[in-house]
Structure formats: structure tokens, C-alpha cells
Specification:
Length: about 180
């Protein structure tokens, strides 16, 4: 005579296996949050970094950070921290956050100096965090190189005008 509880156990095991495979499939369908390809630049135009560089001059008024993103859902809050690395410990010069409001694969932060201020010469770092997790970081430098006299190039995107500086060699290559 066979025990009667054999089939309910097999049924429970099948249901458990199906549930586990469903959870694994769900985990694969949700991309992991990733912030990458951090690029410092003199502007953002058309969803791209405009005149990317890692070296800025003390008189550069605004520094932009462009980044690529995967898995950022609407409602995700990304925080940027801007650090001056020439002090011990590093000096936090700015912090700001943005909440993702649209589905896209890129984002940007920027820091504009107050009127009459200049960047201190030295090394800086920008950190991007989601919650307490450091997701990405990049460094840039400010050196005594002057950018005065470099004309600005403007691009209109979605009703906004983005301005970034154009080097003399870039302007000659367009002509």
C-alpha cells in the first residue's frame, strides 16, 4: 500500500520550483542600476557632453558632468558630491540631487560658481550616489590655463539654449 501524502509533496515541490524560476526570471528582467561613462565638459548639448575635458581654467564659470545610465527608474534619486582634493580631508564644495522624472539613458549635473568667484587650482572629484551607495566617480583638474577669448557655441535643445566654449582648433576644423 502506498502512502497518500506522496503526491501533495511532489505538487508542493513543483509549485516551489516554478515560483523560484519565476523569481529568477523577474530578477533578470530588471536591469541593475548603473551610472557610467562620466564625462566632465564645458556644456551639454543634444544629450551629449559638449567640449569634454578633464582640465578647466580658474575662470571657467560652469563645469558640467554628463553620465550614462542603465536601470534608472522614475523616482530614483541621484546625488552628486563635488570635492576639492587638495585639502586633508577633502573639502566638500557642493552637493545636490536630482530625482529621475523620465525614462532616459543619460543625465547631467553642473556646478556654477557665484559671481566674481574663481576655481582654486588643483584636483577635484565628483561622486554620484544612489542612497548611500557610491555608484560612480570621476576626477578633474583646474590649472592656470586661461580660456579667455574662446568664443561660445550655442545649441538649442527642447526650447533651451545650451552654451559651451569652442576651441580655436575646433572652429578652424569646421571651416
Amino acid at each position: 500500500m502506498r502512502p497518500r501524502f506522496r503526491y501533495p509533496i511532489v505538487g508542493a515541490l513543483l509549485v516551489g520550483a516554478l515560483a523560484l524560476s519565476g523569481m529568477a526570471a523577474y530578477g533578470r528582467s530588471q536591469p541593475a542600476l548603473r551610472l557610467f561613462d562620466l564625462t566632465t565638459a564645458r556644456g551639454i548639448a543634444g544629450g551629449k557632453a559638449c567640449q569634454p575635458t578633464r582640465v578647466f581654467a580658474p575662470d571657467d564659470e560652469v563645469i558640467y558632468l554628463w553620465y550614462a545610465a542603465d536601470g534608472c527608474t522614475i523616482g530614483t534619486t541621484i546625488r552628486s558630491t563635488w570635492l576639492y582634493l587638495e585639502t586633508d580631508p577633502p573639502f566638500r564644495i557642493a552637493e545636490g540631487d536630482v530625482t529621475v522624472t523620465r525614462s532616459d539613458n543619460w543625465g547631467q549635473f553642473n556646478f556654477k560658481l557665484a559671481e566674481g568667484r574663481r576655481w582654486a587650482i588643483g584636483r577635484y572629484r565628483i561622486e554620484l550616489r544612489v542612497g548611500d551607495d557610491l555608484m560612480a566617480e570621476t576626477d578633474f583638474w583646474v590649472s592656470a590655463v586661461q580660456t579667455a577669448g574662446i568664443p561660445a557655441a550655442s545649441t538649442e535643445e527642447e526650447g533651451r539654449v545650451w552654451t559651451c566654449r569652442e576651441t580655436e582648433s575646433a572652429r578652424r576644423s569646421r571651416q
